[in-house]
Amino acid sequence: MFIKLIDNVPVEYNVFNLRKDNPNTSFPEIISDEMLFSYGIHKVVEQDRPDHNPLTQHLSWSIENIDGIWYKVWAIIDFPIDVSISNQREFVKKRRDLEISSGILIPIDESGNTIEIATDDISQSRITGAALAVTLDPSLTIQWKSENGFIHLDSTQIIAIAQMIRAHVQACFNREAELISLIESDMPYDIESGWPSTT
Question: What is the pTM of this model?
C-alpha cells in the first residue's frame, strides 16, 4: 500500500499511476523508495488485522506516521448495542435452522438399531402429511425413504416419528430462546452447546 501526501494529508495512492501522472518523465523499470519519496509517495507498513468479533465489532483503519514511518493502523470499534444484538440474534437464528435440519436418529427395534430421518422443512411437511393420513386410516402402511434407504412403517411408527421430529424442532427453538435471552441480558453464551442431540 502507498500513500501520497497532498497538502500534508495522506491519500491512498496507486503507484502504477505515477507514470500516467507524470507523462513527460522517464522512470526506471523499478522505482526506488527514494524516488517515490521525492514525489511525495510513501510506502505504508500494514499491520495484521486484529482478531475481533464480527457480530459485535467492526474494524476501522487509518494512516499514521510513527517515528517517520507510515503505518496502516487498525482500530476495533464496537457496534451500537441494538446493531450488536440484531447481528447476534440473526446468527443464532441461522444456527437454529441448521440444527433443525440436521436430522435425527430413530430407533427401529429393541436391539438398538436406528435409522436417520431428515428433518429439513420438506421432510417435516412429508412426515406431517403421512401422520395425518394414518390418523384418518390407521390401517395404512407406508414405504418411507430414510437416509438409510426405504423402510416399511405402520401407523404407530409414523406417528411416533412425527412426534420425535416435532420434539427435535421444538428443542431447537427452545435453545434459540435461551441464547437470545442471554444475548439481550449481555451475558456470555456458547452457541456450540445446548442443542438437541441427533443421536
Answer: 0.74
